[in-house]
Amino acid sequence: MRKTEFYSLPRVTREYDERRFGGRSGEWVNARELGFTLSLLPPAGRVLDLACGTGRLSRVLAARSYQVVGADYSTEMLAHARNDNTANHVRADAFRLPFSDQTFDAVCALRFAFHYPDLGPFLQEARRVLRPGGALVFDTYRWSPRALLGISSRAWGGRVYAFPSHRVVREAVRTGLRPRVERRCFFFTPYLYRVLPYPLVVCLHAMENISPRLLLVRSFWRLERPAGPP
After folding, report:
1. What's the whole-model pTM score?
2. pLDDT tens string 135-165
3. Is the Cβ–Cβ distance between 50 and 107 less than 8 Å?
4. Which residue(s) pair with 220 in the sheet?
5. 229 in any annotated domain
């Protein structure tokens, strides 16, 4: 089943937030992902929440007075996101966005890039809709059992793809984007953090500060479209 089909299933939308962010440990995962994203964004402006899903990021951005547009391919996800009425939401293909060139000050794409084997088309389309000086914020896996072995891929919508840091940098430069920040986090997939006891999650978080960055599996990125010619 294609990713777009999987995330268009009504049951996937109903279960999405609970399966990933339910309970105290899941809430911690959600807060951490959103915190990384907010820390990498410009302080204001028009932001595209790409692959917005149930709208968890759109709601936070709107509460901080960003001008938010949420975009997703799944009509089921969009129906859920629109219930909050905190942002404009449109149905869109992430690789052929219905927006003019240089429309946004920032583009965010959480839990999206690692669903596809090639970063190039995503980065190219994001760059197109960014204004000069604008920022692209997204996350990747550096490694994952789902990328290596396809563990539980059917239950979670298919395999994911890992991207070493040097590959992300290379693709960014090739598409005319400048890598500015990479922040690494999590010892293993956040899906596992979600089911761990909260005190253990806190201990793992503390260990990140004294562990080699090579051991961490996720990266949050800020890339920028140059203000002048690339």
Report:
1. 0.93
2. 999 999 998 665 555 555 566 667 889 999 9
3. yes
4. 139, 183
5. no
